[in-house]
Description:
The structure is a homotetramer. Chain A has helices spanning 15-22, 37-53, 59-77, 90-102, 104-107, 116-152, 172-197, 216-222, 234-237, 240-267, 295-317, 330-355, 361-367, 375-386, 390-406, 414-424, 432-437, 441-447, 456-497; strands spanning 157-162, 165-171, 275-276, 358-359. Chain A is elongated. Chain A starts with 14 loop residues before the first helix and ends with a helix. By secondary structure, chain A is mainly alpha-helical. In chain A, a hairpin with a 2-residue loop joins strand 1 (157-162) and strand 2 (165-171). In chain A, strands 1-2 form a two-stranded antiparallel ribbon. The model of chain A has no long low-confidence stretch (mean pLDDT 96). The first copy, chain A, folds into two domains: 15-56 and 112-365 and 469-497, Fumarase/aspartase (Central domain) (Fumarase C, Chain A, domain 2, Up-down Bundle); 375-439. The first copy, chain A, contains 19 helices and four strands.
Amino acid sequence: MDRLWGKAFKQHPTKEVIEFMAGRDVKGCKAADENLIEFDIWGTKAHVIMLWKQNIISREDVKVILKGLNEIQNLWKLGRFNLDPEREDVHTNIESFIIERYGIEYGGKIHTARSRNDQVVLDMRLYLREEALQLVDATIDLVECILEKASENLEVVMPGFTHHQHAMLTTFSHVLSSFAVAIKRDILRYRGWYNLFNRCPLGGVSSYSTTFPIDRELTSHMLGFDGPEPNSIDPITNRWEPETEMAFILSMAMNHLSTIAQTLILLSTTEFNMVELADQYKTGSSIMPQKKNPCSMEVIKAKAALSHGLLMSLLSIGKSNMIGYNRDTQWTKYLIMDLVRECKPSLHILKGVIETLQVKKERMYEQCNRGFITATSLLESIVQDCNLPFREAKFLIEEAVRYSEIEGSEKVTFSSLRKALKEKGIDISITQKQVDEYQDPMQIINRKRTLGGPSQDAVSLSIQTIREDLRRDKEWLEQKRKMIDEAKGRIKDIEESLNI
Amino acid sequence: MDRLWGKAFKQHPTKEVIEFMAGRDVKGCKAADENLIEFDIWGTKAHVIMLWKQNIISREDVKVILKGLNEIQNLWKLGRFNLDPEREDVHTNIESFIIERYGIEYGGKIHTARSRNDQVVLDMRLYLREEALQLVDATIDLVECILEKASENLEVVMPGFTHHQHAMLTTFSHVLSSFAVAIKRDILRYRGWYNLFNRCPLGGVSSYSTTFPIDRELTSHMLGFDGPEPNSIDPITNRWEPETEMAFILSMAMNHLSTIAQTLILLSTTEFNMVELADQYKTGSSIMPQKKNPCSMEVIKAKAALSHGLLMSLLSIGKSNMIGYNRDTQWTKYLIMDLVRECKPSLHILKGVIETLQVKKERMYEQCNRGFITATSLLESIVQDCNLPFREAKFLIEEAVRYSEIEGSEKVTFSSLRKALKEKGIDISITQKQVDEYQDPMQIINRKRTLGGPSQDAVSLSIQTIREDLRRDKEWLEQKRKMIDEAKGRIKDIEESLNI
Amino acid sequence: MDRLWGKAFKQHPTKEVIEFMAGRDVKGCKAADENLIEFDIWGTKAHVIMLWKQNIISREDVKVILKGLNEIQNLWKLGRFNLDPEREDVHTNIESFIIERYGIEYGGKIHTARSRNDQVVLDMRLYLREEALQLVDATIDLVECILEKASENLEVVMPGFTHHQHAMLTTFSHVLSSFAVAIKRDILRYRGWYNLFNRCPLGGVSSYSTTFPIDRELTSHMLGFDGPEPNSIDPITNRWEPETEMAFILSMAMNHLSTIAQTLILLSTTEFNMVELADQYKTGSSIMPQKKNPCSMEVIKAKAALSHGLLMSLLSIGKSNMIGYNRDTQWTKYLIMDLVRECKPSLHILKGVIETLQVKKERMYEQCNRGFITATSLLESIVQDCNLPFREAKFLIEEAVRYSEIEGSEKVTFSSLRKALKEKGIDISITQKQVDEYQDPMQIINRKRTLGGPSQDAVSLSIQTIREDLRRDKEWLEQKRKMIDEAKGRIKDIEESLNI
Amino acid sequence: MDRLWGKAFKQHPTKEVIEFMAGRDVKGCKAADENLIEFDIWGTKAHVIMLWKQNIISREDVKVILKGLNEIQNLWKLGRFNLDPEREDVHTNIESFIIERYGIEYGGKIHTARSRNDQVVLDMRLYLREEALQLVDATIDLVECILEKASENLEVVMPGFTHHQHAMLTTFSHVLSSFAVAIKRDILRYRGWYNLFNRCPLGGVSSYSTTFPIDRELTSHMLGFDGPEPNSIDPITNRWEPETEMAFILSMAMNHLSTIAQTLILLSTTEFNMVELADQYKTGSSIMPQKKNPCSMEVIKAKAALSHGLLMSLLSIGKSNMIGYNRDTQWTKYLIMDLVRECKPSLHILKGVIETLQVKKERMYEQCNRGFITATSLLESIVQDCNLPFREAKFLIEEAVRYSEIEGSEKVTFSSLRKALKEKGIDISITQKQVDEYQDPMQIINRKRTLGGPSQDAVSLSIQTIREDLRRDKEWLEQKRKMIDEAKGRIKDIEESLNI
């Protein structure tokens, strides 16, 4: 018996969803530096090749070290290179391995002209860059899925809410595309991160450069950066900065996701009953037989809260420091790694939720005639037809609403409108038919044709525009991937030329 | 080679210190529910005993279940009860174990009249209560150590700083006892936590109670609580609250520790050179041979930043919810467990740092004659002797300082004072000797006899008072421990009476 | 025309409510030190009386200064003592006033043996203490109002929610008393604040005490404190601490209020339709005639968010400082004053909302038969009657729910239960009547008699207990008020004895 | 007497600096909507012109309304248009003014086809856009000033610190340019903000568009936006987003400034004594005659803490909302306005501090021979000259440091190096002269020629590069200003064509 619930479920959560919801209850986290092994090896390769090209170490030195690094990489892929907790960090583990295996005369040269201070900044940038690209990828996927769902629901009229109350009519498609527009901004933020931080810090050494004649352009080139950082102190004093920027982007993204989550949670209550999440994104109760809870959406909200706090910690670590490296910044590593690990899966989960979401069109339409949600459109039509000043017409309809309410109606009735007109001494000609038509949901939606509005045409156009933007984001992503692959290729070429 | 540094170190960091500084670089975190196993078993025992006493389950039922729970406990102690990630959480793991081992006719009764909603709130309170007591214990230890160091340094005169600038004289003992007073407040906060939250939530079930005739007083009694929670909904809606309160207390405590850390970091710079941390609390550099960095103190600062953020996430999870259980609160578990795990060791580390701290009395004294730090005491003496209004005397000495500065002195000179007096047309009789004596460090300290001041007598008295307070805290701690042990004893007695 | 809406409103918001919702749109904030004038005067009086009693200034000195201070107080009450921005702060304004009016020979003595560093800490404690007592007062009022409403709604059955979904039945009274229990904890937190910080910092001077022979017990006594702070440095290094503790308490309180607010917002949507806020706590729209928005409740949520952030800033200011005064802490003044000003009115507003809240009993009852909310109670009854293991019965009812759903029912039907029983091969005797009764809302509530549950008796008992606790809080409040009044009386007596 | 200190000051703080440090002690804040009056008028002008162009209102309507708006603008400039607190907000104040002055037949049309929901989002974007440009301007100024100071201090050698301890040598110029590089990133962030949010939300109305045939491209064009927002709901649901992004940028900027502030605070202590702030950026004490406190720098640190918290509140308001407008977001207005008001002046203050900063070159140089700060360069030279593996050489010099320390030296001595060599059995030829030269500060700096390093050439090159980047930022700023001016011009042209 793996779960205390589920007999009433049509589909069961997948392993991915179960893990998403179980959080860290029954699963721990690995050592942070596990995430850095591959990047530390890559950075070290670029570094020692440069040392050789600059004649700081010999051709034989570089050959032995590269061979050793490849050995570690292979062991690691086989799960046989484990970080030894006796050896402080990934950097020490790797250097020690080479020294023990090939002697200090080779391994002892690996750290020439660098320090762990610049090395870890490098590793973190490589790690964050990779995560940024993966996040862009997953975000594009989510936006596309939302747009797809939006284009399937162009005609689904529903109440639009403000203050959680019925405001004016909209369509589910219009709501979905508002989500897409918001999330698309997150992609631009990741791109902004990339532009700010795809710069190579290697060569900063302790913080204060070195007397070795190193070539920072070369290492930068072999690591896929847009160029070296222009000052050796800054990336180390501000080691917290790329991490914090990423945490901010994730916070913004999670806020967007949390609002989608909360909207879906509310729309899927017994009372709203406008959408239903697929069973595989819900969980049951250990005691209540009927329960199907939108836990996946609640977890997203929790992760939004998490992101804000971790951002705060990162900002706090970056405040009021003295120049140069400070150990406080080591904790930025755990903060951002935790955050990425927690947030990244949310994009795919939400994508699944939206793809499988059941939209209850009839219930939505039914609610379009409640709570005087069509009164404003009636008001707008009267202003347009009868040349009443808007404010006067607003006060008029307010009275009509009050009278209609007394009549027990949830739309403005013809009789109450007439009563209000008479009371105000306003003389306009309007018929019962007009009053009805002006409050007809489909007609209202069709008239909301303006750019950004909910009519079918307007939303279709908007979806098209967002898709075009997305195409540009995809090109950007591809181009960045290519640049990184080329950098990796450069090292591979050199290794081949050295017969490794 | 375990470390890239250390040949210049007199003592090497202990395993505890290494771990403290290496953070999560080379060490992961275990699953959160590992921390709850023992508490979940305890809570379940109390629950099933109550069910039996209330005739909801039979004597045989309770025997089998208790036996099964003891089996799990033993396996777990032997490291052989592992949480299965396929089974959502600790609760499911335990219930499933019993069902599989002893059949659903026994194990299937374990969850009668409770829900995971009240169960996890219970587990967390038991966990947090235990941590609170351990934190009180470690905090008392730290305060005692600081007081001990303070009583060893009663005569060590040093500059007191405001705005990082020389202000007035103090003693190192006075400074240390200011730390003790601050940290002692944290103990009172833990005690406040205990009073608010040592209440049993069990019996709240899903959030809305049960039709089973349970006895909540009885379970509360067997779990060492001060009584059951008076409303079934509140502890579940506000599941985030004990966690958040604890995070706040830890934030305050870490702020206190961070200020001690920062003060020690500054006092131990090459420039201040007033204290020196023992080598075992420092680390070296991977490249700079001379380096001995106060990393342990920087890590404490990082953890203070961490605590603020995690508190923020907890508060955010607790904001604007609908009544009843919400899955968002599951993440409060990880937040507070991370925080406790990160912060708790700081108390013992700081204790070690202070115990082994080298105080450079001569350097401290030397700096007591710099930067006109004695000018205010001169001013005070003139006011007392000569009946000058304080404000007038203040302006006078300001001028004297300015003239003395021109003379190249860092104390007020007799000549500059006379010049200022003349200029201001003030006629008081003061001698060279007086001017010197009024600026003599030892004499100044001796005259600061008022309650809370730095003279030997005043600090001694203050230390004595704090120690008396601490004695009361220790008694409280002992009493709470006893109450918990008695509760555990009650269950053991029943088990014995059932021949388990 | 003052508002763009309102013709449809039965009652209009009061001035208090309008101000609450308009926030700072059309109203600025006064200078922070305006809040400190009365406390600075009080503190200064106590200080100069002590100086006289200790023979540091003369009887004539103290008379002139006290006279001057009374003059300022009178001018201020008449709105004619304005803080001059040329004069840094309230302390400088007051000292300068006395000097200019009565000469430096009197006014110049006012600052003897104190510094602005201890003075402002004193002022802030006096200010915060007064606010703490007012907050306790308003919180008691709110709890009493909630309990009153709870006792009026003992029989009002409604759905209880978890995950925003129907869980099990409860009563509105049960929900309200869960709010009362939570808010009552806030009162204990204010009391904790009082115990920690009702200590007199005066005499700490710059941070490092003084050579003047001052009597700190005396000033403490004249200011209503429980005694002087035991170390002169601590209250100044940690000037941020009472402010931060208060901000934390307000954050917890606002979280409680925000959850009430959110619950009321949801229950009052068109879809839930279970409660309705009185019109005077809503606002209209500038264009939508039907709109009545629960803005007062949304503002409370905003203020909860505000409180978290300001708490964060305060904690950040308190992190990693060097000992002694640092100017950074000046900003804690604005942070806490803003927070108190923003949060305090929320208590009275919410009280009004609850007092005037319309409870839609019929709608609540109607929803008690939806979404299988009674299934768990059926399950519990079957377990009790038929001796089925809970887990087995749970799986059974899950199946029955699934079959009933197919039948289009929102309760478990007799036929579907039988089908499930048969399928599982379970043989228990249960009748149609039992199935109906076990799912009857009133019967279910009546059976939830356990401590903390929703039955009338259980909630009545719980209300009674909370009221008794409240009585103790009121006594505490009264006693503290008395202690403060007596301290003020002491100064008044001395003034009279000096013929001022 | 305006201040309680200052006789020892060479220059007194200017009014700007006094205000910066006095904070809100003696100065309140104005109503938030005061900041929006000009933007609300501008937006309304564009809106009514569009209504006219679309034949929704008449030529006469638009003429009267524009006249009325200009009247308000003039009154406001003369300080005679005051926001009436009885009238909720700036929008109501303006509409009411026109209605009362020109009749509802004109003023009542002003709000046709818009809502306060889209109107306030518009106003805030116009306000934030203006602030963003001003912040870019002030940030450019600050960077230029830092670069200027850097170019004046190219030869000033000083200790570089890591962990607050002596690490390796650097120059003050190198440090300053690290500050410039960091702050320059903030400019790119403001530019990113501009790209994301210079989009016109007008026309979104309540959140759900309108049936009026409005032209959103036209209003966008007259308001200087890059185009209309593509979805009417998104900018209103996410009203918090441009505010939060701005708060994040300010948090990052303030972190950069706080680190400069903290570094200057430390370097200007009596103990470090490496720089001195000009007297006009310091304040004195009310009692300590010698005191000159770096308060301006501490205030910057406080404001960094403030920014983090306000960011947090903003993020919290943006979490887990339902779609559409929610009143909670009104508080984002105060949060961001407070933050901008608090942070903006910091840039100019810091500029002044750096311009007038006294650099104590001799003291800096003196400290370059302490704490074995040159040991790493010696190590590097030995590796280069003697072909020792770096790690081996590192261990060697560690020993040499230990021996030198025993000798009482703060540089590596020739004898101790020889002792270490012997002990390790390493045979390299090195002379006393080499050991001295390799530890000579000037020689070391000259050898740190690599890109981003501290040698004169390297720093000069770096300064040049940053200046070129800055030129591009200035061009961007100019172009944006021009675009906005042109938009304003369009409205002016129309007004002229209407003879207003």
